[in-house]
From TrEMBL:
<keyword id="KW-0547">Nucleotide-binding</keyword>
<feature type="domain" description="Septin-type G">
    <location>
        <begin position="33"/>
        <end position="305"/>
    </location>
</feature>
<dbReference type="InterPro" id="IPR008114">
    <property type="entry name" value="Septin3"/>
</dbReference>
<keyword id="KW-0963">Cytoplasm</keyword>
<comment type="similarity">
    <text>Belongs to the TRAFAC class TrmE-Era-EngA-EngB-Septin-like GTPase superfamily. Septin GTPase family.</text>
</comment>
<dbReference type="InterPro" id="IPR016491">
    <property type="entry name" value="Septin"/>
</dbReference>
<dbReference type="InterPro" id="IPR027417">
    <property type="entry name" value="P-loop_NTPase"/>
</dbReference>
<dbReference type="GO" id="GO:0051301">
    <property type="term" value="P:cell division"/>
</dbReference>
<keyword id="KW-0131">Cell cycle</keyword>
<dbReference type="Pfam" id="PF00735">
    <property type="entry name" value="Septin"/>
</dbReference>
<keyword id="KW-0342">GTP-binding</keyword>
<keyword id="KW-0206">Cytoskeleton</keyword>
<dbReference type="InterPro" id="IPR030379">
    <property type="entry name" value="G_SEPTIN_dom"/>
</dbReference>
<protein>
    <submittedName>
        <fullName>Septin 9b</fullName>
    </submittedName>
</protein>
<keyword id="KW-0132">Cell division</keyword>
<dbReference type="GO" id="GO:0005525">
    <property type="term" value="F:GTP binding"/>
</dbReference>
<dbReference type="GO" id="GO:0005856">
    <property type="term" value="C:cytoskeleton"/>
</dbReference>
Length: 331
């Protein structure tokens, strides 16, 4: 079978075919359907997770928890809470779901604290899989799969803690992880650069594959763009939903005794690079990798398990989590 590429061109003799109109058709369809994006935030209390989410989307998409006593402030177990919002900008609609994990890293013993989060992520894959294999499945399956996990690293200035390494080592296999240095304005520029370098070394030493993963670069252009991003990660970020007057302009920032830290000024922090990655340049790619890599690996494992195990035997879930634990995961 012969295949080839024919270049169509407009001329007075042949006329215009109109193949390029498919782009406008796709745009109209996407505008009608809208988009979904599910983002998880993980990190110990007090690192500004809610503030950063509100800053990213310039909306109150994440709520700070209001607690009254010290005992209530630290949950006894990791709670997983999802809040969904419909956001619209210039006619483009997006259903944004922010998944918070209060209690992570706040216990005296944080051993295996990644497991409830792993179970939650797998439970969303399982829910999507069950909808997908349903004979009377919906025309558009609701997508609750976690597309991206922002992992907040405390600004210690030293190196990654064991809890950071353990979490990212396990979870990077099932979800796109983007690590950030929280409250980066507490570090000097020299401390920040040293800390970023140490974190990069720790990630490589522990073979932690954060987003954008090198193995999924599609071509030379992708590789060049993503290599620059990989060199910058983790992003040193500052979040704020407060506006201040700076040189006659209203800007998002944090006021200090020494001046105003401008959130979107790349000479002050790297928030703008994080925003561009998540929203302006790589959002669709993040969703594609979730669907074609992470979810696909889960789906293949689950279907293989169902074929291999005889009826009546307990099925061990993908990623080593027993099925009954995944399905009984507390939301």
């Amino acid at each position: 079978m012969l295949t080839g590429c024919i270049s169509l061109f407009a001329s007075s003799e042949l006329g215009y075919v109109g193949i390029d109109a498919i782009l406008e058709q796709m745009r109209r369809k996407a505008m009608k359907q809208g988009f979904e994006f599910n983002i998880m935030v993980v990190g110990q209390s007090g690192l500004g997770k809610s503030t950063l989410m509100n800053t990213l989307f310039k909306s109150k998409v994440s709520r700070r928890s209001v607690k009254t006593t010290e005992e209530e402030r630290i949950p006894k177990t990791i709670e997983i809470k999802s809040i969904s919002h419909d956001i619209e900008e210039k006619g483009v609609r997006m259903k944004l779901t922010v998944i918070d994990t209060p209690g992570f890293g706040d216990q005296i013993n944080n051993e295996n604290c990644w497991q409830p989060i792993m179970k939650f992520i797998n439970a969303q894959y399982e829910q999507y899989l069950q909808e997908e294999i349903n004979i009377d499945r919906k025309k558009k399956i609701p997508d609750s799969r976690v597309h991206c996990c922002i992992y907040f690293i405390p600004p210690t200035g030293h190196c990654l803690r064991p809890i950071d390494i353990e979490f990212m080592r396990h979870l990077s296999k099932v979800v796109n992880i983007v690590p950030v240095i929280a409250k980066a304005d507490t570090l000097t520029l020299e401390e920040r650069d040293f800390f970023k370098q140490k974190i990069g070394e720790d990630l490589r030493a522990n073979e932690i594959d954060i987003y954008p993963q090198k193995e999924f670069d599609e071509d030379a252009e992708d590789r060049m763009i993503n290599e620059k991003i990989r060199e910058m990660i983790p992003f040193a970020v500052v979040g704020s939903d407060q506006e201040y007057q700076v040189n006659g302009k209203r800007l998002l920032g944090r006021k200090t005794r020494w001046g105003t830290v401008e959130v979107e000024n790349t000479t002050h922090c790297e928030f703008a690079y994080l925003r561009d990655l998540l929203i302006r340049t790589h959002m669709q790619n993040i969703k594609d990798i979730t669907s074609s890599i992470h979810y696909e690996m889960y789906r293949v494992r689950r279907l293989n398990e169902n074929n291999m195990h005889p009826n009546g035997q307990p099925t061990i879930h993908a990623n080593g989590v027993p099925e009954h634990e995944v399905l009984s995961n507390e939301m």
